[in-house]
Amino acid sequence: MGLTIQKILMSLVGATTFMVSLSTNATSLDKCNSAPLIVTKKNVGTVSYFATNCEKSWEKQTIRLDFNYNHDIPEWAFKQAASYFLKKNVAGFNENSQLNHITQLYQPVKQGDLYSLYYQHENQILELKLNQKKLGAIRDPNANQYFKIWFGTAPFNAKLKQQLLN
Length: 166
Fold this sequence. Notes:
By secondary structure, this protein is of the alpha+beta class. The protein has one domain (28-165): Chalcone isomerase, CATH 3.50.70. 33% of the residues lie in helices and 28% in strands. A 6-stranded antiparallel beta sheet has the order 1-2-3-4-5-6.
């Protein structure tokens, strides 16, 4: 049977070391800022901005936006707003754009729901989650440009942009 207690322990130690090394290599994000999400003068939730380094430009690192909702919002509202602000802020954006794939994933939200947009800089992957369930992702050199909805020159809400990035 060749398995001794020593070999079993060595295997367990090796597996534990491997798991610790995996979690250490995962990008850790700091919470930079939070701000109210105001839509037509109505507070519909809170947005939190996370980054590898809060002092660094959002365009050059791994970042995440969490949207906590305190009102119900239909999916068409997300899709319409996202398309509108992507067209205003991303050169060449159209219906066939990779970025539009993320927009098409939006679902309606109810009070208490959480949307997360997570961009992994190293892999150029943008992921959308609703209540911690992955709805989909894209891998594209310009995937982080999706954040121009909130951080572009013509953002969804200029005050929100300032509150999150300053």
